[in-house]
Design a protein that fits this description.
This protein is α+β, with helices and mostly antiparallel strands. Helices cover 35% and strands 25% of the residues. It contains six helices and nine strands. It has a seven-stranded mixed sheet with strand order 3-8-9-5-6-7-4. One of its GO terms (molecular function) is DNA binding. It is found in: Nucleus. It comes from Cucumis melo var. makuwa (Oriental melon).
Length: 161
């Protein structure tokens, strides 16, 4: 079966693609295709490319204190316009956030606090998110690293697109 010319052609294309899409991880080391794909699948929506902002955010995240869980979120239109709904990773919410609706605090890099409503069954932030988004002039394509530093407190860091 390995002698099949069509199969060999497909394997060569895949190998060429893997080489041309090499990505460096923290410390400048090249990540394997599998490592890159795992990071990409974990951090990006289907069809989304890894912008330089995402790469910077992933590097920042890798240097955060490991005792505090964190995740990276690329902003889309619904996060910063019209709906102002910030969906959070479901697995993260189930592992680390309250099982009931709660008021969360977002503490920005300047030390300002913003109160937002966490809706547990929808795993996202609602009321108050608009004020945070407007205060930081967040745009579609920007990236945030959310670090959970208390039961209901995040320290998001901003990485412009």
């Amino acid at each position: 079966m390995d002698d099949n010319p069509m199969l060999q052609k497909v394997k060569k294309r895949l190998a060429d693609w893997k080489t041309s899409h090499a990505v460096t991880g923290p410390g400048g080391k090249f990540m394997s295709f599998e490592q890159n794909k795992a990071a990409f699948d974990e951090q990006c929506s289907p069809g989304e490319f890894k912008s330089s902002a995402v790469m910077r955010a992933l590097e920042v995240r890798s240097n955060l204190e490991q005792e505090f869980p964190s995740f990276v979120k690329s902003l889309v239109r619904s996060h910063v316009a019209s709906l102002f709904w910030m969906g959070l990773p479901g697995a993260f919410c189930k592992s680390y956030l309250p099982a009931r609706d709660s008021t969360m605090t977002l503490e920005d890099e300047a030390g300002r606090h913003f109160q937002v409503k966490y809706i547990a069954h929808k795993t996202g932030l609602s009321a108050g998110w608009r004020q945070f988004s407007a205060a930081h002039k967040l745009l579609e394509g920007d990236v945030l690293v959310f670090q959970l530093v208390g039961p209901t407190k995040f320290k998001p860091t901003y990485h412009p697109f």
